[in-house]
Amino acid sequence: MRQFADTENLSELVRDALGAGRRVVSVDRLRGGSQKGVYRARLDGPRTESVIVYSWAEDENYWPSTGEADPTDPFAPASGMVQFLTAQRTLHGLGVRVPRVLLADGSRRRFPADFAVVEDVAGGTLEAFFETDPERAAGALSGLAEMLGVMHRDRSRNYGGVDLREHGDGVGSEVPCERRVLDRALGHLKEAAARDGSIAAAEAALRDRLVQLAELVSPRQEYGLIHGELGPDHVLVDGDGHPVLIDIEGLMYFDIEWEHVFLRLRFRERYAALSRSDLDPRRLDLYMLAMRLSLVAGPLRLLDGDFPGRAFMQGVAVHNAKEALALLQQA
Question: Which of 46, 55, 196, 297 could form a disulfide with 188 if both were Cys (CB 3.0 to 4.6 A apart)?
Answer without folding.
Answer: 297
